[in-house]
Design brief:
It is built from 17 helices and twelve strands. By secondary structure, it is α/β, with parallel strands linked by helices. A seven-stranded mixed sheet has the order 1-7-6-5-4-2-3, sandwiched between helices. It folds into two domains: about 260 residues, Aspartate Aminotransferase, domain 2 (3-Layer(aba) Sandwich); about 130 residues, Aspartate Aminotransferase, domain 1 (Alpha-Beta Complex). Bound molecules: pyridoxal-5'-phosphate. Pyridoxal-5'-phosphate (PLP) binds next to helix 6.
């Protein structure tokens, strides 16, 4: 793998390691409890490596990766907000982290109150009436809400609604969730501004439509000014409207999907409310719905009795059932609660305003040097095209790779699919003007390099630990496990 080798190749054969501290009494107790049940006959085949070698190895690896603690991180679509460290402390408080999900509700009133308060806050933020915290990710929130859509139509005896409409800018999980529910998916083209094309929508609407899924602001970072009209038309045809809330970063505290006419939305708590999501989970994708969908939400629901005690209630005969064990992924939910309570309504609004301001400032600095196919003022993110650079021989990927040489993480590239050579940039709301300027300067310098010395860009990165990886192979054939060599 590299000149220093993998950790298990760093074994000290003559046994340079100190044994783990233990004492005879505990060893004997463990042996008596585990013998015949789970006690190993042979020691586990683990490498014998001194502690300091392990620490050095993983520290070295961490330094080869780019992370939010290393520098600016402009990935778009994932709505990367700053995750304050204090929320990590909150999520680890033993009284919260060690609650057993099977504990009797009377013993965990504090946790239930936290979750109930979070439900209420998310309902208020989204302009909806009821919330479930169960789904563990945005995609599963979509699935949950679409199952509620199906249950709603069925409850009205409206059995022919089997189609979901999505715009061509939608995130891949939208059509995938609809297909997972057994619905057929119809994609409609966006108009020249990258927005919902009302005539294309009209043409797709009929009494077989279960719903329309829209991201607002959409994946181009553009707000749909006709969103109320879109909702009216879908409702007029008997369908429901779903808001993909992954871009709530641009709305929290300012505008509410519930007020725009949406029937349901999911939050990506791990994007908008303080859970680091680069590591691939766990996340949380709470779903908020209007009153007419509440009866279908997953059970158990957290219900407050007349005595002020909270209990878990599964007596909802129309519910779609459970979509996750217990009450969802508690860690991300505690972080979300801490983030929301910490900021308060005005603080949340300020976070949103700064996200939008930062994106607009950055765009104003770089827009002369790159194409901007959809020119509406962006919200929290914007999508450039490297078509002009491609004509000079440098693709969007090359620009992204060259950014690494300048000390920046690459933006999202080649998404959304409707923008050729897309560079999707979202500056975090907490970045200073100085870091935004440094990033803009790098993008401008790279645009000049594409004109003057394109090979420099095409062969980038020149300073990264690893240059151009086979990303498909890396994603499909992950090789992370320690496999001890066969003996004998
Ligand atoms: C991230 C994202 C999703 C999916 O959310 P997960 O939590 O990753 O499942 C859906 N839509 C949009 C626009 C997103 O950015």
């Amino acid at each position: 793998m590299n000149e220093e080798g993998l950790i298990f190749e760093r074994e000290v054969p003559e046994g340079g390691c100190l044994p783990l501290p233990g004492d005879e009494a505990t060893d004997a107790l463990a042996e008596s409890l585990l013998a015949g049940v789970a006690l190993r006959a042979q020691p586990a085949p683990l490498p014998d490596v001194p502690e300091w070698e392990v620490v050095r190895h993983f520290t070295r690896l961490s330094q080869r990766n780019w992370g939010v603690d290393t520098g600016f991180y402009p990935l778009g679509s994932c709505t990367m907000k700053h995750n304050p460290r204090v929320n990590e402390v909150a999520a680890r408080l033993p009284g919260l982290a060690r609650v057993h999900p099977d504990q009797h509700p009377a013993q965990v009133q504090g946790m239930l109150r936290l979750l109930k308060t979070l439900e209420e806050a998310l309902a208020e933020i989204s302009g909806m009436d009821a919330v479930t915290l169960q789904p563990p990710a945005g995609a599963q929130g979509e699935l949950t809400a679409l199952l509620c859509f199906q249950a709603y139509h069925r409850s009205r005896g409206d059995l022919g609604r089997t189609r979901i409409i999505v715009p061509d800018s939608s995130h891949g999980t939208n059509p995938a969730s609809a297909a997972r529910c057994g619905m057929t998916v119809q994609t409609i083209q966006s108009n020249a501004q990258g927005l919902t094309d009302l005539s294309a929508l009209d043409a797709a609407l009929d009494d077989t439509v279960a719903g329309f899924m829209l991201t607002n602001p959409n994946t181009l970072g553009v707000f749909e000014p006709q969103v109320e009209e879109v909702c009216r038309r879908v409702h007029g045809a008997g369908g429901l409207v779903y808001c993909d809330g992954a871009n709530m970063n641009a709305l929290v505290g300012v505008a509410r999907p519930g007020d725009m006419g949406f029937d349901a939305l999911h939050f990506n708590v791990h994007k908008t409310f303080s859970t680091p999501h680069g590591g691939g989970g766990p996340g949380a994708g709470p779903v908020a719905v209007k009153r007419h969908l509440e009866a279908f939400l997953p059970v158990p629901r957290i219900v407050e009795g007349a005595d002020g005690m909270l209990r878990l209630d599964s007596e909802y005969p129309q519910s779609i059932g459970k979509v996750h064990s217990f009450s969802g992924n508690i860690g991300p939910l505690v972080r979300a609660y801490a983030y929301i309570v910490n900021h308060g309504p005005l603080g949340l609004r300020e976070v949103t305003e700064r996200a939008v301001l930062n994106a607009n400032y950055l765009l104003s600095r770089v827009r002369e040097a790159y194409d901007l196919p959809y020119a509406s003022p962006p919200m929290h993110e914007f999508v450039l095209s490297a078509d002009r650079q491609k004509a000079l021989g440098c693709r969007g990927l090359d620009v992204a790779k060259r950014l690494l040489d300048y000390g920046f993480h690459a933006p999202t590239v080649y998404f959304p699919l409707i923008v050729s050579e897309a560079l999707m940039i979202e500056p975090t709301e907490t970045e200073t003007k100085r870091s935004l300027d440094a990033f803009a300067d790098a993008l401008l310098a790279i645009a000049r390099e594409c004109e003057e010395q394109p090979d420099l860009v095409k062969e980038a990165p020149h300073r990264a630990y690893a240059a151009r990886l086979d990303e498909v192979l890396a994603a499909r054939r992950l090789d992370l496990r320690y496999e001890p060599e066969e003996e004998g």
